[in-house]
Structures are given as structure tokens and as C-alpha cells.
Amino acid sequence: CIWVHRLHTFRYRHQQTTAKRVEEVEFDGPCMKTEVPGPRSKILAQQLEAIQSVVQVNFFCDYEESKGNYLVDVDGNRMLDVYTQIASIPIGGYSILYDPELFLGTFVNRPALGMMPPEQFSEKLVNGLMAVAPKGFSRVQTMACGSCSNENAYKAIFIWYRVRGQQFLSLVFSFFFQVPGCPDLTLLSFMGGFHGRTLGCLATTHTKAIQKLDVPSFDWPIAPFPQLRYPLGQFERENAQEEARCLEEVEDLIVKWNQKGRHVAGVVIEPIQAEGGDNHASFDFYRKLRGITKKHGCAFLVDEVQTGGGSTGKFWAHEHWGLDDPADIVSFSKKMLTGGYYQKNSFQPDKPFRIFNTWLGDHTKNLLLTEVIKVIKTENLLDQAKRSGKVILEGLYNLQDKYPHLLSRARGIGTFCAIDVKDEDTRNNLILKARNKGVVLGGCGTQSIRFRPALVFTEHHAHLFLDIFNDAIAELK
Amino acid sequence: CIWVHRLHTFRYRHQQTTAKRVEEVEFDGPCMKTEVPGPRSKILAQQLEAIQSVVQVNFFCDYEESKGNYLVDVDGNRMLDVYTQIASIPIGGYSILYDPELFLGTFVNRPALGMMPPEQFSEKLVNGLMAVAPKGFSRVQTMACGSCSNENAYKAIFIWYRVRGQQFLSLVFSFFFQVPGCPDLTLLSFMGGFHGRTLGCLATTHTKAIQKLDVPSFDWPIAPFPQLRYPLGQFERENAQEEARCLEEVEDLIVKWNQKGRHVAGVVIEPIQAEGGDNHASFDFYRKLRGITKKHGCAFLVDEVQTGGGSTGKFWAHEHWGLDDPADIVSFSKKMLTGGYYQKNSFQPDKPFRIFNTWLGDHTKNLLLTEVIKVIKTENLLDQAKRSGKVILEGLYNLQDKYPHLLSRARGIGTFCAIDVKDEDTRNNLILKARNKGVVLGGCGTQSIRFRPALVFTEHHAHLFLDIFNDAIAELK
């Protein structure tokens, strides 16, 4: 089998090139003892059912036993983790790197970071979040989770738009905004975009109907996101036309909504629509979109909650676009361990308590992130993501050539890869088959599988994954 | 001085009655070395200013040195903490009670709790959140923070209202809700209420204009909250009339909004309006309000983010009302360490992923809470809160008798107490004076001071606080 062969070759190279420490905490492969979920997971699910819904629960895990790239469930099944808690574990279960004593005081005495921060707060921000800040950003605001990050980024945009607007357009504004203090401003988002599930975020989230059903929403403009045809090389002209159509629609929407007095204060977009199905657009599309926001005075918010943290081979996916000034605000969470956003200076509200809450994040996550970033840098894990990503994507290309009736649209940057399966049921079935063979995967969109390994996922793990994934596909009828 | 005298008497009783362990981690009183913020805090604020706004920062803390009821700042000032990180530290800096090893695996491998919970998840919920669940609740959903808790509780209410409504009122609904899927439902909230700062929560938050200014909002009904006159005993009839007026307005609003097709799906209220100024209403008011929600088919959401966790002398403030069925949903955060809400079974959405996000809270907080609840129970800290609260409130009554030109409206349940100062500037000045004498306090409303000690705040600390507070007041011109 070609996969086994590759794996062996790889293992040889691997042992010579990778740092020892990564290997020390690693198992040598998946090890399955039961179907997943196993009997212990099922018992635990029954217990939990008495307290909360378990319809979303896949299985229960033993996080003390989970190390490196391997997730161990409560039935002792050891699985290669290509989903990482919905793309939120940066460098795998590196428990041994952390000294628990470091965190304890802050953990128990959780500070209200906006009012009474701990001594090392600045230092940890400088060595943590600011050490990996996208070019052009010198300010950061932490928040507890991705939704809170976007909610507060939206507020920062509205405040910025009004404060700026009041200086230059006070007459226009006093005419248009009939609700005193709460103006009828809007944010433009994209079909297929996902920015969170709280009420403000949800107004910009357009992935699955069930996420929005029955919940009151803001009536804000929604633009089409390019539907690229694959393989990209074969549809260059069509895809360029599709992107031009979408950009034209964006500009039309901004003009139209501004004209009716419901000004578009900002545009929010992901560098890759993740939850929506790993939908990519060209770097050129994003550069032009940035130009449109500048032309019309809209803030440009890049939501890197899922794409940020290094899996694309750069720390921030939008850094691939090659722009000096790609964004006004960049939001993050998941692999960054803390939520929050970077902001241009002009987005700092003019008065205190406009952006505020009790905790404003969780300093223990800042401490952890600082350690994680040290590891990412010393072990060159961004380069690792590029190398592993190359193996994954080439493997996916081979698989879709081998199973053209099942697989299509293999795509990705770094390890941030995805592939489409012929329909939703087959996709879900394939994820379950892979899991029972020891690989944890997640779906996205209607029929895609997203691959979201940690940054310690080496070429070795990539081959191991492809080998098992191939076996799972081969079993599909 | 009367306060010194009381303190001495108390110390004597205290030493005989309180468990040793609380004392072991405690300092014997405030110890001030500099003005607050001191030079080290100022340097750190300058450093932080380069990265984020510091206009809300009071001072920087040394959380490793902070123990029990004392907060130690980076200049070595040791202050009695009567604010507890905006009312969010349950039992003070009890670091020694926790074994860091317990938390490490979960801390580093942060689980996506909705999909891959850890083995002990149910058990920790049963011994943590469910061990202190308000009567009538057998289900709980964790969330990361207070705003997320309310945002998701609102969603649960809207889903419940529609799912129930569609069964009985499908014709009415299809007529009224013109936006398919996103109905024009509303939530009724109260003037002076505070429920968070994300866009959904913010539509129900009505404390300070600066919190809402420039941010688009939902147009939902807002009812008046009773403005009680103090002392309560002197204004019984007027206060009963005021409460009746507010309840009548609530019912009118529900009827009116339902009639115009913007149905009121739920009513959200705090047992004590905290951020809004520690505004109380009688238990009878809440009982009648509960009746109105039942009559009109609205969900009743009690927001215990600030009041929950034991400081009123019961674990939940709404338990004082003496109702068998006081609420449909109870939200919490702050002193509960994790955000979340208890819900009646009927509020569990009918389909998966309707209430969901990546982390759904943070399991390390569940672990910590389980330990905290053990301590609260074994050391009878709710009784402690009643005893200390009595000392605080009596002390506040004495102070307002002594300084009637400065202080008024002393009020509270348990240690959840407040007093009004003659105006906002004097209030702010008094808080600073108390801080420089070694007591950390926080304001609320326009001219109130709220007292929010931890549950380990004994009569001894109450006397100590009153003594210093008296000195600070005496210095006011």
C-alpha cells in the first residue's frame, strides 16, 4: 500500500529532523480498544443527560492521558487528533511544559483585568499576544471567548464610526439616527460566514438555519461570498468573474444601505470561511475588498477566531494577502487560548467603560499562551505546519484522484485543509469510520471535512492520518 | 471610638468561634505603604497604556500574595477587599486549598465541553453547580461569562416561546412574523437593570448611557423598576403604591407589545439591581411579577450573575422570595467562577447546536467551583454571611445616623449591602479615601457604594471595615 510505504519512508526522515521533546510526550500511533463512543462514554452520557443535553456529545475524554497529537477517550481509545477541540488546541497536550504553580494565584484570585490587573499583565501581553501581533497593530484587548471578542469588536466599530462621524457629519447623523444614542448602524457580513452565536454575532452568522431559527436578529446587509470552482487552475477565469461579481455586490450594498440612512459602519469577514465549509477566496479578492472598505469609510474586521494561531503556516491567515494595512481590527480566540482582538489606535473608545466587562478575559490563559508562543517559536512550528500541510494537501489530491466519485475540492493553506464528500450522510459516515480507526475529524459546511491538527502535527502524523483516512474511505460503499 | 471598642469585643468572640483554617491564611489587618495607586502601579499602568486602555485600571495586584479577605497590590499595600473583583471572588484567596495537579490536564487540553467532555464532567457538575441548584431546577448549561450566559438564556427563551407557540398558535405566528425564521420577539427588562454588554444583553441593560451610546440595539419593552423610599418602615404605603404602579406598567407593556405582534417572550430581572445602584424591591413585588409572567405566557429569567453565590445569606437571592416556582431560568457567573444558567426542562432546545459554542464554559472553573462549594458547606459560610451582613448593615445604619448630611438609604441582605452618598463626586472621593486607608470598595448607580466581600468575611472583618470606613467619612469636608 502506498500509504504504508510513505509512512515508513517518512518515519525515517522524521526521526532525524524533529526535536526530541515533541517525541517524548507522544504515543507511537492510535490504539483502539472499543467502538467510539465506547461503553464508558455511553454510561457517562447517560449520567450527563440528567443535567444537560448530550445530543452534541461525541465521546468523553481522559485529558490527563491525552498527550501531543493524541486524544485518549475514557474507554482507553487513543486517537490521532485532527480536530483539536474544534480547532482550539494550539500545540497539543504539552502538559509537561507548564509549571502549575505559575498559574495558581491568578487561577484562584481571578482578576477583574480591566480594573485590578496583576503585576505581570503587561509583560505577559507583550511576550504573548503582542509577540505575535499582525503587522500594523500595537494594541490588544482580551475577552473570554470568540463570541465576546466579536461582539466587542462590533461595538468598537460602531463607536469609532459615530465618534468619527460626529466630527465630520454631525448634521447628516442627527437627521438619520432617530433613536437617540442607539443609531441604526449596520455591519456587512457574508453568506456562509460564521462569527459566533450571541445575538450581535448571530446577525452576521450565515451558515446553518438551525443556528438562527427563532432568534430575533438585526437586519443588516449580507453579501455573497465567492463560490469558487475546483480545481482552481482549471477555472481561473470563472473564479475571477465570480469574485468580481461578489465585490460589486458588496459595493452596491454599502452604497444602498448608506443611502437609506442605515450606514454600514464595518465589514466582517473570515480569511477562510471555516464553519461555513472551508470556503476560500483569492488573496486578490481580499485586497480589493479592503480597498472598497477604505473607499466607503467602513471599518474592516478580519475574524481570525478559527484561522489564527499558525495552522496556515503564517501566524495569521490574513498575512498571506500581502497587504501593508490589511485590517482595522483582527479578532481571535480558540488556539489563542484567550479571546480578544487587536485594534488600530483609532478604534480605542474615547471614554472608559464603553468596552468593558468584569473579567475581560482570563489571565491564566495569557500565562499559558506566553508559554505556548515560546514553544511555537523555539520549535519553528509555523514551518512545521507548512511542511505537514504540504503532505496533507498532496495526500488529499491523491485521494480525490483515487476516489473521484466520493471526494472533491481538496483545498487548504498549511494544515488548514478540507475536502468535500459526495453528500452529507457519506461525510458523517466517513467521520465516524475514521474515528473508529483512531482519527478524530470534524465536519464543516454541508458536506466538507475540515482538518484541524495542532501545530505539533508533523509529516509523520500527516502520513499516519492519510493512511487511516484512506482505509476509512475504502470501506465506504 | 465606638468602632475600636466593637472591634476588640468582636475579636474576642471571633477567636473562639471561627475555624482555624480561615485564620491561617489571613493577615491581621490592612497595611498601607503608599498612596494607591503607588509608584509601581503607576509604572505598570504606563507600560500597559502602550497596549490597551488603562483608564479603568485602579491599581495592579500581586495575586500570589493576596490571601483570604486581603488584596495585596504591587506596591505591597495590603487592603481589606470589600469589592472582590467586582463581586466575583467567592471565598477569597484560598490558594492553599487547591491542588494544582488536579487542574493541569484540563487546563492545557481545554475541552470543547459540548462535544468531548472529560470523564468527570457530570460528577463535577453534580457536586458543583447542581449541589447548589435553586429549588425546582435539575438542568444546567455552562457558559464562559455572564454576558454569554444571558445571551444564551435569551436564545433558549425565544426558542421555547416559538416551539411552544408553533404548536398552539401557528396561524397567529405565521401572520405576525414576517421575517422567516427570525421572529420579531421581544424581552421585557427594567430601567436600572444590568444584564451584560454584548449586543443582545445590552438591549436589556439600562444603567448608564455611556454603556449603550452609539451601539445599535433591539427595540424591546422597558418597564419601570420600583424606586423605594428609605427608611422602608417609614414609607410602607408609598412603596407599596410604587410597586403596584410598576407591576401595572409591566402588564400593560406585555399586553400592548403582544397586541402589536411583537410578542414578549420573557421577562428578565435581577433580585437586586446591582450595577444599577443596589435597588431593592419587596419579595411581594417579585412574587406578583412572577404571577404576571405566568398569566401572559412569558418566561421568567432571574439574573443572579451578581446576587448568586451566597452573599445574601441564601445561595440564591431569589430564594428569599418564598416561591415554589420562582423562575424558568436562573443565570449566573462571577462568584460561581463559571458562567451558565439553570433551566426548566421545557427550555432545553428541541434540536442540537441551537445552544452551542466551542468551549461552553471552562471545565477548570467547574473543578474549582466544586472545591469552593465544599468549603462553603463545611464552613457554613452562608451563616457567616448572615452574621457578617448583620454587623455591616447595623454599622451602616449607625453611620447614616451619625452623618445624615452625607449618607442615606443604607440597605442590604446578608453582606450584599449598599449605602448612598450625597453626590457622585463625594462617593468617588470616599472610595479613594477608604482605599488609601486599606479598604477596597466599588461604586454602583450614580451615587451608591456597594459592599461585596467574599464569603470568608467574618464579623471581625466587618468591624474592621466599618472602623476604617468611619475614619474615611470623617475626613470628608
What structural class do helix, strand and pairing data of chain A support?
alpha/beta
- Strand order, main sheet of chain A: write it out: 3-9-8-7-6-4-5
- CATH superfamily annotation of the largest domain in chain A: Type I PLP-dependent aspartate aminotransferase-like (Major domain)
- CATH fold field value of the largest domain in chain A: Aspartate Aminotransferase, domain 2
Q: Per DSSP, what share of the residues of chain A sits in E-state strands of 2 or more residues?
A: 5-15%
Rg from alpha-carbon coordinates of chain A: 23 Å
User: What's the number of helices of chain A?
Assistant: 15
The largest inter-chain interface, given as chain pair and residues per side, is: A-B, 116 and 116 residues
Tell me about the largest β-sheet of chain A. Answer: 7 strands, mixed
CATH top level of the largest domain in chain A is: Alpha Beta
Q: Any idea what the shape of chain A is?
A: globular
